[in-house]
């Protein structure tokens, strides 16, 4: 069995633990170890990184092309509608090519997904040209994002591509933001909510839908992407909300920090809830988001409230002591659990 060096260390540590616990004897441990064949170089990871860099370069190249009026006029000296049709045909060809390769050469995962992603880029360019062709001065771009949602959702779901599904979720957030912004006349509030509160609700609803549709999403390898984006929308919105509250920017400048304390507490409670659930379910993603944004919350509050008035040595010393106490308490619980397993 071919494994990476990191995987080999994990397997060897597991086999050694089983031998010490009496699950297997030493002869069985040695027999299993002989079936491990470590790879000296992780070609799979290199392939993934190479395609990611290639896609990043393609995005930069296409963005530079669109920004260059001379090249656009030279290559696409047509009206907006004709450009949209040409770009749509290119996007369709990429999708067709990608699906065909997925069917005949499914083992070429990264190159197949890169081709599909080119279709995503040309779809976005198509929608931009459609928007310019249909622009009537209203500023309502939400229908274009909704059309992008439908295309990316269908392609991502059928191709089991987390990358394309990510663009669907980004387009869905953009649609929600632009549709509510247009409905409010591009003012600060929609139904009494500013943008951060809207996206707190949006992230919460997205997370709830993710767990309600967990089974079909897991079957298409899209659950983790959906959960990560739901958490990202939720926590970034909570972070911004803890800074600005439900205030317009002009009003916020005259608001005292103590009036925003309840939003900071809500942000902290959400992070602690993630950490608590992760400890109960051993969910690494929830633990990572909870710990990361709890730290962001602490640092944000520090810079807001204590940066000017507190000695930096004293503050970080108190923070280190508190984290050490938390770590000591967690270590005690872990040792109790390990002692229970041994019995």
UniProtKB/TrEMBL annotation:
Protein's UniProt name: DUF2157 domain-containing protein
Membrane-spanning intervals of the chain: 49-66, 78-98, 110-134, 140-158, 165-189, 195-213, 225-245, 260-279, 286-307, 313-330
Keyword Flavoprotein: no
Superkingdom field: Bacteria
Assigned keywords, A-Z: Membrane, Transmembrane, Transmembrane helix
Originating organism: Buttiauxella ferragutiae ATCC 51602
């Amino acid at each position: 069995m071919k494994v990476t060096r990191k995987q080999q260390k994990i397997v060897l540590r597991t086999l050694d633990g089983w031998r010490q616990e009496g699950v297997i004897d030493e002869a069985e441990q040695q027999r299993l170890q002989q079936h491990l064949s470590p790879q000296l170089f992780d070609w799979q990871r290199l392939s993934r990184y190479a395609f990611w860099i290639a896609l990043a370069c393609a995005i930069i190249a296409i963005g530079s092309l669109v920004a260059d009026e001379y090249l656009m006029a030279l290559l696409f000296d047509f009206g907006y509608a004709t450009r949209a049709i040409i770009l749509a045909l290119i996007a369709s060809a990429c999708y067709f090519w990608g699906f065909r390769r997925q069917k005949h050469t499914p083992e070429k995962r990264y190159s197949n997904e890169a081709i599909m992603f080119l279709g995503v880029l040309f779809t976005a360019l198509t929608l931009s040209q459609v928007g310019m062709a249909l622009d009537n001065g209203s500023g309502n771009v939400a229908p274009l994002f909704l059309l992008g949602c439908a295309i990316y959702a269908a392609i991502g779901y059928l191709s089991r591509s987390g990358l394309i599904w990510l663009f669907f979720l980004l387009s869905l957030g953009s649609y929600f933001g632009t549709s509510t912004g247009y409905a409010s006349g591009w003012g600060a509030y929609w139904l009494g909510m500013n943008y951060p509160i809207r996206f707190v609700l949006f992230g919460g609803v997205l997370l709830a839908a993710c767990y309600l549709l967990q089974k079909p999403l897991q079957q298409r390898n899209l659950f983790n992407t959906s959960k990560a984006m739901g958490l990202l929308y939720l926590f970034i919105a909570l972070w911004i909300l803890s800074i600005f509250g439900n205030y317009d920017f002009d009003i916020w400048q005259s608001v005292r920090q103590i009036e925003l304390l309840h939003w900071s507490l809500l942000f902290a409670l959400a992070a602690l809830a993630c950490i608590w659930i992760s400890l109960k379910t051993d969910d690494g993603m929830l633990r990572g988001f909870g710990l990361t944004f709890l730290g962001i919350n602490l640092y944000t509050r520090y810079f807001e409230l204590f940066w000017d008035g507190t000695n930096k040595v004293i503050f970080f010393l108190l923070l280190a002591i508190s984290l050490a106490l938390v770590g000591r308490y967690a270590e005690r619980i872990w040792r109790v659990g390990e002692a229970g397993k041994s019995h």
